[in-house]
Amino acid sequence: MIFMKSLDSKIKGIEVIEFFGHPSIRATHKTTFEITKEEDLSLRGDCVIGVKANKSCIDIDDEVKRRMTKDVPIKITICLGNYTFEVNAQGHPSLTLTDERDIVVRKSSYICPRTLAIRSDRAAIDLPRYIVSILHKKETKGKMTISVLDEFKA
Known about the structure:
By secondary structure, this protein is mainly β.
């Protein structure tokens, strides 16, 4: 992946989370996207883009968590086969990363135990619709790569 090569020296921590598609994925939420360990999904979960994840916030490596709890840029890459979707977000000292079920990325600055990153430049609604159609299949397997980049220099 070209993105990773060009940023290699700036990456300070990486976490990869695997997840699956589901027929009820709508990806229409305008301010968040979510990946969950839950196996089922109702149509109310319009921010969910993946289910049956192998990790939630609490499962992220402690060193990666430590780095995320600073004001650092975070690059999130969603991969489905040959398709990728990239998101730029921000870490924050108030992140707790303790939820046992979900991972939520937010455009806002709201923080709760489910919050992975804030001030995202993308939400569920921004996923290309061809990617959403791939996510409608239960057998679709995806990966979310979280890359914590160098700290900002003051």
